[in-house]
Amino acid sequence: DAMVIQNPRYQVTQFGKPVTLSCSQTLNHNVMYWYQQKSSQAPKLLFHYYDKDFNNEADTPDNFQSRRPNTSFCFLDIRSPGLGDAAMYLCATSRDLTSGSSYEQYFGPGTRLTVT
Amino acid sequence: GNSVTQMEGPVTLSEEAFLTINCTYTATGYPSLFWYVQYPGEGLQLLLKATKADDKGSNKGFEATYRKETTSFHLEKGSVQVSDSAVYFCALTGNQGGKLIFGQGTELSVKP
Asked: In the prediction, which pLDDT does A46 show?
């Protein structure tokens, strides 16, 4: 089955120690997203890639970076994690961002990040 | 700007009870509307969607109708099960495409 895969499912890192979360997809979708979700709140969009074009949300801290080396993979890098960065990180994909059309986002299972 | 408002949770029901989770939206033009479900410790799954006025989305016994006149997309199920316990998010994308706008989520707990 085509899907969105996130690894690892659980990640523990130390305060200030860089960490990378991974997302891959077999849907061949153009768009990949990273969300941060705390305590069953609504997911908060951090940024997205449309193909190789990176789009950062205005309120995403500089501490968060992303890489998309190819269509299938996208990484979230947290350069210096703080205690406030402990959250569930969700990756999602969609076929396109075409104006005027609906698009569905397909989510991965998430990576729960703990910062000690 | 576009926004989504859901009824506050948690909602606690007995098995086989009728479920309604209210969702209203503010958007220009004709947004697409979605319900996502998140089971404990999991990512979000698309439950159903509707892309134009009067469309009814349905899946797994859940239904929601896109009501342009009341700017609503209420989620209903006739008979809930314990396995339906989850957090439900109403969401929209604007007619320009782009960002998915979520409501705050409604936690549903179904007791045997």
From this structure: 96
How far, in Å, CA of B92 to CA of A80, rounded? 33
Q: For residue A35, is pLDDT > 60? A: yes
How many interchain CB pairs under 8 A, A with B? 55
Token couple for A85:
């960065």
**Helix or strand holding residue B109 (H, E):** strand B106-111
Between A99 and A116, whose confidence is greater?
A116
**Residues of chain A positioned with their CB less than 8 A from the CB of B97:** 96-101, 103
Residue in A40, A104, A105 nearest the CB of B105: A40
pLDDT at B97: 57
Please answer yes or no on whether A40 and B107 come within 8 Å at the CB atom.
Answer: yes
Q: Do A102 and B95 touch (CB under 8 A)?
A: no
Residues in chain A: 116
pLDDT given at position A70: 95
Contact B43 A90 (CB under 8 A): yes
Coil, helix or strand at residue B10: coil
Residues of chain A contacting residue B51, judged by C-beta atoms under 8 Å apart: 102
Average pLDDT, chain B: 93
The CA-CA-CA angle for residues A34, B47, B106, to 5°, reads: 80
Share of chain A above pLDDT 70, in %: 93
